[in-house]
Amino acid sequence: MRLYYLLFVLPLAVLVAGCGGGGASKLNASDVAVVANQHISKAKFDELMGQQKRSLKSQGQSFPKAGTTAYASLRTQVMTVLIQNAEFESEAGKLGVTVSDKDVQTQLDQIKTQYFGGNQKRYERELKKQGYTDAAVRDQIRSQLLAQRLFNKVTASVKSTDKEVHAYYIAHKDQYPPTRDVEEILVGKNKETLARSIYSQVKGGADFAKLAKKYSQDPGSKNIGGKYTAKKGQDVPEFDAAVFSDAKTGTLLNPVNTKQYGWFVIKLLGDIKPTAEAAVAETIRAQLEQQNRNQEMTDWVTKTTKSYCNGGKIKYQAGYQPTPDPCASLATATNTTTTG
Question: Could you tell me the fold of the domain covering 3-158+283-339?
């Protein structure tokens, strides 16, 4: 198990970070940037670049050479991640969101148990193999926990109303197809004669459940009397068309031949039932709440980003300012929205 797969690695997506200006603490010689009072060290920058180098190597790709456009692009992405991490650290303090050393240890213990069988030496061997330090692993875990707790804090009040759930259900009814209870015996391919024999036996009053147990090739239903709840559009076309026809409840259908599975003997046990809103309401509610929480967090990140850009809370060491400047892009987007 490779550590950079099991550990949280912040995405190298340009999530617009801050730009330079007054209001930040003084840069130290060992800093690549400072965000408000959060110092980002060159050691941290080098560490993240090293992670990306190992990741590219694992994919059979070469790490770009310094001075190339590809290297500048990667450096910009890494700086963006580091800047946003620092912004999150600063905002977490304002919101009372914390991650203790004990929290980090608990998560690390779970990782060791899950991927290394709780064996400290195996864990240490993997660290050495991949060029990680225990401190780097703990730092990544802390970033993961902080990001998750910020998400929970910012989106804690997000709820989906019954009205929203109902509106979604009405607009997406095709996602909740009708069902019909049946008894079915999968006889199989090239077995028309046997299928018609079973059909005749059922027609003559034979016990469907006993025949299903004896003849059906469907392991999911043969031992429960052939009982099956069909969902429209989910089965092979020939079976689906027969079950959801206008035939009345109680009808023993003529044997149905399907291209994929062969012959079926089917009896309709119930009417076609639409999927009730109540049956899927909680699933819809959870889906909507997750979407709304994601949007709430996106809006919060955008607002936070703007506050750092406009407040001049970030300074860069020479040679480390992202190119292009994310704040310039943000300002352009804001102006376009305002004047458009």
Answer: Triger factor/SurA peptide-binding fold (1.10.4030)
CA dist., res. 319 & res. 328, Å (int): 17
Q: Which residue has the higher pLDDT, 126 or 198?
A: 198
For 27-52, what is each residue's pLDDT tens digit? 999 999 999 888 999 998 998 898 88
Per-residue pLDDT tens digits for 290-313: 999 999 999 999 898 888 887 678
What residues does each domain of the chain span? Answer: 3-158+283-339, 177-268
Count of CB atoms within 10 A of residue 89's CB?
Answer: 20
**Do 32 and 21 form a contact (C-beta atoms < 8 A)?**
no
Alpha-helical segments (H) within the chain: 3-6, 42-58, 69-95, 101-116, 120-130, 134-154, 162-171, 192-203, 208-215, 237-243, 277-311, 326-339
Place of tokens 């409840």: 249
Q: In what order do the strands lie in the sheet with 262-268?
A: 227-231, 179-188, 262-268, 256-258
Q: Residue 116: which of 29, 239, 1 has the closest Cα?
A: 1
- DSSP characters over 74-136: HHHHHHHHHHHHHHHHHHHHHHT----HHHHHHHHHHHHHHHHTT-HHHHHHHHHHHT--HHH
> For the domain bounded by 177-268, which CATH number is listed?
3.10.50.40
Q: Is the pLDDT of residue 330 over 80?
A: no
For residues 141 and 170, the answer to whether their CB atoms sit within 8 Å is no
* Residues 84, 14: Cα–Cα separation, whole Å: 10
User: Is the pTM here over 0.85, yes or no?
Assistant: no
pLDDT band of 329, cuts 50, 70, 90? low
pLDDT of residue 130: 78
Helices 162-171 & 277-311, crossing angle to 10 degrees? 110
Round to whole Å and give the CA distance between 83 and 72: 16
What does the alpha-carbon distance between residue 210 and residue 223 come to, in Å, rounded to a whole number? Answer: 9
